[in-house]
Amino acid sequence: MPKRETTFVCQKCGYTSPKWLGKCPECGSWGSFIEEVRELSKNPRSAWIDHKGGKPLPITEIGSLKEEREKTGIGEFDRVLGGGIVKGSVSLISGEPGIGKSTFLLQVASLLSEREKVLYVTAEESPEQIAIRARRLGALKDTLLILSENNLEKVSKYIDEINPKLIVYDSIQTLFLPYIESAAGSVSQVRECTAFITNISKRRGISSFIVGHVTKEGSIAGPKVLEHIVDAVFQFEGDRGYNFRVFRSLKNRFGSTGELAVFEMTERGLKEVPNPSEFFLSERPLG
Ligand SMILES: Nc1ncnc2c1ncn2[C@@H]1O[C@H](COP(=O)(O)OP(=O)(O)OP(=O)(O)O)[C@@H](O)[C@H]1O
Ligand SMILES: [Mg+2]
Ligand SMILES: [Zn+2]
């Protein structure tokens, strides 16, 4: 029998406790604790936060590694990122259902697949749905690989085989690691899956975009608990009744936060609005 660890996790904020609590001491929610179990022997905690070790070095000897960036060609997106995608960085793209996360990341994946191997992991929609969308967006490329898989361990085997330079994970709430017994979307799964993705990205220099759902009340804990693990957090905002979407950086280790870009949702996908300040001055409804 593998050793098991049982903890109770607040599904609102991710606070963990060895015993069940009626009220969360961290965020004050009632009835938010769920028992989560994992098998310890299969998942040594040290395995995932596995930064390359080494001996202490004078800081002046470290500076030689330069930040490699890649432009997507979507000018406003590159600007909010801080000048393009930083190689090996992990970014969370969050937003309410239907806002356009999958659409936009499919556009980005398609653009970059012209230059390098790109893998789009769909744990939510079928490959056929993705292909239909890609056709509508003009994003069909035979260099863009679509993998329909929820099990992140299986995904990692394909990553070893394919060696992509960019991966989209859509979405973090539908991926799971089999050695964690709680359901996909639970705080434990979301946190461990993100740490797992981060580890792969840093080790192999793969840039990763992770889709995270946020409800109207912002009540899913997932994106909140993983904000500190990832390098950058971006959010799509807007109202589905209107076609405009605001893309905002909430956290960015490689650029300034609070940057924003405006996009318009069209049949061919999200199109950048080149001058956001003019856009706001013209006071078009954003919802
Ligand atoms: N033919 C179309 N023409 C214009 N806009 C469309 C068309 N089809 C879909 N859309 C837009 O795309 C949106 C859905 O985008 P997408 O599926 O990328 O969102 P998402 O954030 O990934 O949603 P989910 O949370 O369901 O995964 C719709 O709400 C609509 O605004
Ligand atoms: Mg989607
Ligand atoms: Zn809580």
Distance between the termini: 54 Å
Strands of the largest sheet, in order across it?
8-7-9-10-6-11-12-13-14
Number of domains: 2
Mean pLDDT: 87
| CATH hierarchy class name of the largest domain | Alpha Beta
The CATH topology of the largest domain turns out to be Rossmann fold
SSE class: alpha/beta
| Helical coverage, percent range | 10-25%
**What's the overall geometry?**
globular
Q: Could you give a short account of the major beta sheet?
A: 9 strands, mixed
The distinct bound ligands, ions and cofactors come out as: adenosine-5'-triphosphate, magnesium ion, zinc ion
**Radius of gyration over C-alpha positions, nearest whole angstrom:** 20 Å
Number of H- or I-type helical stretches: 7
The CATH architecture classification of the largest domain is 3-Layer(aba) Sandwich
Q: Please count the beta strands (DSSP E, at least 2 residues each).
A: 14
Percentage beta strand? 25-35%
CATH homologous superfamily caption of the largest domain = P-loop containing nucleotide triphosphate hydrolases
Order of helices and strands: EEEEHEEHEHEHEHEHEEEEH
Q: Unreliable stretches, pLDDT < 50, 5 or more residues?
A: 43-51
